[in-house]
Write a structure and sequence with these properties.
This protein is an alpha/beta fold. Helix content is 40%, strand content 26%. It has seven helices and nine strands, in the order E-E-E-E-H-E-H-H-E-H-E-H-E-H-E-H. The protein has a nine-stranded mixed sheet with strand order 1-2-3-5-4-6-7-8-9, with helices on both faces. Strand 2 and strand 3 form a beta hairpin. Helix 2 crosses helix 3 and helix 3 packs across helix 4. It is globular. The relative contact order is 0.13.
């Protein structure tokens, strides 16, 4: 891991930009006694780690006493973009706006992104756990499709919070049955981009004995602010 820059933010959280080979990432850490539990924070592929909503969540979570890390997957942020992936994203958005079937477009686009992103996140996790100030346990927060893949295959992840989940590739829907860690799934009842019934079916498919579903009225960006407090309590129960 090569630290590119480091700065102290006004809330007392330290922000480190780093690279792991071709993988750019950001690590937020509080002024707190080590070793710190770690939360991996992933946005839906296509949005960069510098996306304001992710940064705000990361800084808030770090201030609660966690190390928080995010990376840019292939095609995100400043990483080279694929013309084929950009075309698939545009076609997916067009089909959704038109109310056309999107299943096959989604599978051909998102499935390969998950397969490509998961090894990079595992490499990042290896490097982060080698830092003296990070001791685990490890939590995950964000993109459901990637989180399912990681939680089903990496025993270091002890708890996970997933957003939405209506559109998850078939492979991850099958993997959901292998996920047995504590889960918190946030669902926006009127999310225009994530079919409600599919999200409910996914929640039912998880193999976890402890799983919680929070459903709120509103669209994709309407998650109530109090869900951050509930998330703090969830991670506090399982990562402290």
């Amino acid at each position: 891991m090569h630290v590119v820059s480091e700065r102290r933010l006004e809330d007392g959280v330290a922000e480190r930009e780093f690279t792991l080979g071709q993988i750019p990432g950001t690590l937020w850490t509080p002024v707190s006694a080590a070793p710190l539990p770690l939360i991996l924070m992933a946005h839906n592929n296509g949005l960069p780690k510098s996306e304001p909503r992710l940064v705000a969540r990361a800084r808030r979570t770090a201030a609660q006493g966690y190390a928080v890390a995010s990376i840019d997957a292939s095609g995100c942020g400043d990483r080279p973009r694929s013309a084929e992936a950009d075309q698939a994203r545009a076609e997916l958005r067009r089909a959704m706006r038109a109310g056309e079937p999107v299943e096959e477009i989604f599978e051909s686009f998102i499935g390969p992104l998950v397969e490509e992103a998961a090894p990079e996140w595992r490499t990042t996790l290896d490097a982060l756990l080698a830092l003296p100030e990070i001791g685990g346990p490890v939590g995950y927060s964000g993109w459901a499709a990637l989180g399912i893949c990681l939680a089903a295959s990496d025993p270091r992840i002890a708890a996970a919070g997933f957003f939405a989940g209506g559109y998850v590739p078939r492979a991850q829907r099958e993997e959901a049955r292998q996920v047995t860690i504590p889960l918190l799934l946030l669902l926006q009842w009127d999310d225009e981009g994530n079919p409600r019934q599919r999200a409910l079916d996914l929640f039912d498919a998880f193999g976890s004995k402890e799983k919680t579903l929070h459903a709120n009225l509103g669209g994709h960006l309407g998650t109530p602010s109090f869900e951050a407090e509930d998330g703090d309590r969830f991670y506090g129960r399982h990562l402290r």
